[in-house]
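cron nightly-structures :: item 1 of 1
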Amino acid sequence: MKHISILVPKGAILGSLEGSRQLFSQVNEFYKAKGAPPLFIVQLVGLTKETPVSGGLFTVNSNTIINEVKKTDLIIIPALDGDIVEAIEKNREFIPWIIEQHHNGAEIASLCLGAFLLASTGLLKGKKCATHWMATNAFRSMFPDVTLVTEKIITDEQGIYSSGGAFSYLNLILYLIEKFAGRDIAVLSAKVFAIEIERENQLSFTIFQGQKGHDDEPIKKAQEFIEKNYQVRITIDELASMVAVSRRNFERRFKKATANTVAEYIQRVKIEAAKLSLESTRENVNDAMHKVGYTDTKAFRTTFKRITGLSPIEYKNKYNRISAVA
């Protein structure tokens, strides 16, 4: 039997905590139904027996506390709520225990913003990690030695796992169930809980937020210019000249400040505006394309799909409120 420790951090989001417990527990029910012993021992593990979660709206009663768990096989770190720096500080006592358990062979999975607590252990250094797309800038700022892959729903690196935003944690739990119990049980779990099992990325859910949490004022000025003038052709030389910085120095500083090249930033701003048009107006794909300054249909479609994971028409059909009502 695999011992699963679902952590109960102070201020955790109840959904990812309880959802994980339900899914793993349901696997045991499937085994019981076919006369087999349970596959998992599932425990809620806290710093104290009673822990306030979801902004204090709920209290979770843990099965046990961390110093009573000498050995576990899998640690689940649920999503954290509220101010992330505060949340890490409140839950700092988990960190040495997580590190010790990992050194003793435990695997670890973070769900959504639980990635911040996992990264605080240092175990993600040099590894890939996913988290909620809204936390991209904060995560990169706090953990520059971790490779953040914002497009991914799931990462798996040598027994350390992470999931993307919000309810995508369900896909990671299904992934772990498939790994430990097999494909048939994972598919059955997906059907019972009505989870779309084959989601691979969260690109179509992402809203681009230009990184402005830096102190490079000329670069901020260039970002603001791009965001106000995305409809026209903007060159790197024009931007560098506008802020009185050499092109080479401008490109280096822009990438350092925003985690995007200048060209990538311009593309992402344009595609974000095109997404808004496709979501909220009756404009067709060509209208949206021209509105954001593209003239090459193939280039627009290729860039749009790379950034969102969907073609422009697929995106419009999925998210346009007028189409949805119709």
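cron nightly-structures :: done
DSSP finds 15 helices and eleven strands in the chain.
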